[in-house]
Structure formats: C-alpha cells, structure tokens
Amino acid sequence: LRCSWFLSVLYRFLSGRTKITAEPGENVTLPCRTKNNHPVLVVEWIRNDMGELKHVALYRDGRFDKNGQDPTYENRVDLQDREMKDGDVSLVLMNVTTNHTGTYECRVIQRGNKRRKRSNIKGDPICIISLDVAPRPPSGESVFLCIRTSSSFLVLHDRWMLVFFLKMLIRL
C-alpha cells in the first residue's frame, strides 16, 4: 500500500498531472476546479486523442449539449455539481470501460471573459487528468519486480502495481 501511494505521488510530481486508476464498471470522478470563483458559463471536457470535433461533455445553458459528443460517453457523464459552486467543474464518468482510458482535459468559459459561447473552447486546459481503466488481476497472482536506484531498492509485489509503474515510466 505504501509503495502504491509513493508511486502515485511520484507520478503526480514528475508529470504535473492527476493520475486516476479504476476498474471497469466503476463510476469515476475527474476532479477539477476553476482558479477563481467567477461564474462558469461553459464547461468542456475532451479526451486529447479524440480529435477536435468531438467532446466527452459540453455543459452550457444549464444542460449538456449532445451535439458533437463522442458516442462512447452518451448517457455516461454528469457534473459532480451542476451549479458549479465554488468553481467545481468535476466530471463524473459512469460505468467506465477500458475504452475510457486516456488523458482528459477540461476548459471553461467564465463570466467576465470576452469569449463567445462555442462548442470547442480554445486555450489552455485548467485540468489535465490521466485515467487508466483496467481489470484487477485475479487474487493470488504475484509478480515481483526489484528496481535498484543509486541508494535503495524499490520492490513491486503484484501485477497491478507493475502495470501502473510501467505505464508511468513509458509516459515519462
């Protein structure tokens, strides 16, 4: 457990991104909050490998805009707080599958910005989240991996940690 926590903290520190792991069938919250408390007019969540014309979720005028939504996310998304109090624009993905693995980005338009409402919001994302959806290996299956650093050893003792660690290394 300590090793998993350490790897999670190390990954976040090195990448500057939030990393979330889940199992198929779970509901997952992608946490995101604006930096100020200006009212949010539009929230757009995309997955960066889907192309510019599709989105995961687009929320404006108090409802989700399904026009341009990738079919994989139809009836599977909601905002954690539709009133977006205190700038909370976190997205809930329901009943995730391995197809939902990817890097998600959130962009917003807030009151006071001079941008007009449109389906694709340009500019830097306010949150970037990597989601990995994978089934947990059967219990009793063990894999040991020892990694030597200049001053110590890191031991990964099951396949779930090994997969997480290897994916983290590949992305660095």
Give the topology, please.
Elements: H1 2-15, E1 18-22, E2 28-30, E3 40-47, E4 57-60, E5 63-64, E6 77-79, E7 91-93, E8 102-110, E9 127-133, E10 142-148, E11 153-158, H2 159-171
Parallel strand pairs: 1-9
Antiparallel strand pairs: 2-7, 3-4, 3-8, 4-5, 6-7, 8-9, 10-11
Keywords: Cell membrane, Disulfide bond, Glycoprotein, Immunoglobulin domain, Membrane, Receptor, Signal, Transmembrane, Transmembrane helix
Pfam families: V-set
Domain Ig-like: 22-122
Give a brief outline of the structure.
The strands form three sheets. A six-stranded mixed sheet has the order 1-9-8-3-4-5. It has two helices and eleven strands, in the order H-E-E-E-E-E-E-E-E-E-E-E-H. It has 172 residues and is an alpha+beta fold.
Describe the overall structure:
- 20% of the residues are buried.
- The radius of gyration is 18 Å and the shape is globular.
- It has a domain at 15-133: Immunoglobulin-like (Sandwich).
- The chain has helices at 2-15, 159-171, and strands at 18-22, 28-30, 40-47, 57-60, 63-64, 77-79, 91-93, 102-110, 127-133, 142-148, 153-158.
- The protein contains 2 helices and 11 strands.
- Strand 10 (142-148) and strand 11 form a beta hairpin.
- It is found in: Cell membrane.
- It is a single-pass type I membrane protein.
- InterPro entries: Ig-like_dom (IPR007110), Ig-like_dom_sf (IPR036179), Ig-like_fold (IPR013783), Ig_sub (IPR003599), Ig_V-set (IPR013106), T-cell_Activation_Regulation (IPR051713).
- Keywords: Cell membrane, Disulfide bond, Glycoprotein, Immunoglobulin domain, Membrane, Receptor, Signal, Transmembrane, Transmembrane helix.
